[in-house]
Structures are given as C-alpha cells and as structure tokens.
C-alpha cells in the first residue's frame, strides 16, 4: 500500500517543482539571449572585417589582380587569427584558408560545425551590385563561444537542481511552520470528548486564512457542547418523568397484593394503574414523534386548508374548558394554505391548551390569522421573562419551576412537538411576551 504524502511534503514538492520550472525557464531564456547576443557580436565583427577586406581587394575582378593583392590580404587576415577566408569566382577558388571544409552556398550568416570546430560563416559578394562579383566566405571560429554556452547550460542545470533541493528543504520547513495552526486544530479535535467540550481554538492567533475555519470549528464545538448538555438534561428528564409513575405502579401493586381484597378493590387498582400506564404510553409516543422529527421522518400531507375552519373546530372543542375557567376565546382573520390538517391541529391544540392553563380568570385567548400565512395565539396573563423565551421549546422544559409529575399535560413536550410540526411544514415558531400578555407566532411559507 502506497503511503500518502503529508500536506507539508506536498507543499515542499510543489515549491521545489515551481522553483525548478521557473529556474529552467529563466535559464533557457538566458541561454537563448546569450546565443543571440553572440550572434550579434559575431555579425558586427564580420561586418567590420568585411569592410577591411573589401578595401584591400577593391577593384579586383580577375585572378591576376588578386595575385597582386594576395600579400596584403594575408597581412590583413593575420590580424584576426580566428578568421579564415575563401574567395570563389566563376567556380574557381582564388583563395582558400580552409580547403577541407564544406561551406553553405546561400548568402548571409550561417553556423557550421566541422571536425569539432564551430564556425560562423558569412557569405557576401566582394563587390555588391555586380552580378559577376567574386564571392567572399568569411569563417569565424566561435568554438570558445560554444564552450561558454555549454558551461552556462551545465550551470543552469546545476542551478535548477540546487534551487529545487534548497526550495524543497526550505519549503518543508516553511510548510511545517505554516501548518502549525492546523496541527493545533488536530490536537484540539483529538482532545474532544464527552467530558471535554470546552476547549476552543485561539482565533486571534490564527492566520487570516485559517481564522474563518477556526471560527467554524469553535462554533461546531459550541454546538456539540450545547447538544450534549441538552442530551444529558433530556436523559435526566426522561428518568425523572418515568420514575414517579413507575414508583406509583410498583407501590400501588405491592400494597394491593399484601393481602386478599374484594374484587372491587382490584378493579379500582387496575383502573388506577391503567391511568399511569396510559400517561407513560403517551409520553413514549411523544418521544417517538420527536425522534422522527429529529431524523426528518415527519412527512406532512399537502391538502388545501381553510385555517379559520380548523381554528373554529378547536375553539369549539376547548369551549367548555374555557367556560369553566371563565376565559373568552376569540378568532380573527382567515387564510388559505396547504398542509397536513392533523399535524397543524395538533400544534394549535398544544398552543391553545397552554394558553388556557396560563390565562387568569376573566382573561381571553385570541387566535389571529393573517394571510401570508401568519397565525398567532395570544393570551392575557403574567408575561414570560426574556431569559426564558429561548428555552420554551426545549423538551421537558417548563417556565414554572414547580414540577407537575404524573400528568401528561405538564410533561413539557407540547411546545417541542409544536415546533417540530411547524418546521416539518417549512415554517418557524417563536414566542413574544410582555407585561400582561404572551403571544406565540407561527409563520408558514406561502404555498405550503
């Protein structure tokens, strides 16, 4: 199995590759520029020698005249030891300082290699503008130029290799230093457990590129810490809620079985136990309902609803309870929407039940429906303090610190179930409260 490279190694290799490519490109460009520069220098040198040669051979158009000037020509050539000359006219060679070298015939500047020697060949007429003018072939030995260029190429390759190696080493060190915050994040992540969710990354000490990641990481830890705390409290609340009915069932059953009793006593005990079991069953069903909501398994049906009809049906159901409590029930507004009638009625029923329980005698519960769709359930009575509002929809949470055990009406799951139903419909629910009033607001998206 091939071992995967670390991020630091990848960065070091990337730095080395980039440096090698840049160095190679720079070396190639410099090499080409040097070659062009030498060609330009050779051209200038040959142009200068050409002027001198033309001056020496001025008016020479026959072999006899050339023989008279040959001594001057040799003297001129002796001044430039690395320069050779060939003169041809009408297919005859008047002068040839390199008889064994085959030269290109095309006019202009050429490069030639012969027997390990590099030449720059310059073919031009002796007398420009004359068609039968003798042809001059100047051969400049540029072997020392080529040796210089070869050494330069070797130096370029050496520089590329050393630069890549040095960059790889420096890149590895820089990458290791630069990735220290990531290792710190890894250490924090490795130290996270159910008992240590309070660790946080120091965002101020993070590089700009990692500050956002550190912030997201800290936010994740905060969410995990909050979720774990809620889960712990939730487990404790479940045990608390089930402990009392189970204890009642055990105690009541043990008392009944301590001695023989009339049949009516057994029947009454079974009825009492049945009430406790029904409450426990309802609690378990509510918990299963919330578990389905947590996993996105609540799938509301889509049917056209006239909200005022469903609200009126619920108000009629609660009418006797409201009459006993001397609380007036009021509905205002109408709206049409799409949703699950059973689920929405359950959510509204929970809100109305809460409102009736906390509305004082002579108060009112008002349900307002606004097209859009916005539905509010408002009741008079003592308000809820601002610090308690964010926790109203937590499971088993009750604003009243007194625990009303043994009654499903006070299990603390109604608002949590209501929130799950509203969210399943793509809406949101929140609570507003002030002095003498409390309002729960449900907002559903249009076309739900």
Question: What structural keywords apply?
Answer:
448 residues, alpha+beta, five-stranded antiparallel sheet, five-stranded mixed sheet, 12 strands
Structural notes for this entry:
By secondary structure, this protein is α+β, with helices and mostly antiparallel strands. 54% of the residues lie in helices and 17% in strands. The chain has ten helices and twelve strands. The protein has helices at residues 7-56, 63-78, 143-178, 180-190, 208-257, 263-294, 307-317, 319-324, 341-357, 414-424, and strands at residues 83-89, 92-96, 108-114, 117-125, 135-141, 303-306, 328-332, 336-339, 364-370, 374-380, 428-434, 437-443. Strands 2-1-5-4-3 form a five-stranded antiparallel β-sheet, with helices on one face. A five-stranded mixed β-sheet has the order 7-9-10-12-11. Strands 6-8 form a two-stranded antiparallel sheet. Strand 3 and strand 4 (117-125) form a beta hairpin. Helix 1 (7-56) packs antiparallel against helix 3, helix 7 packs across helix 9 (341-357) and helix 9 packs antiparallel against helix 10 (414-424). The protein is rod-shaped. The two termini are 53 Å apart.
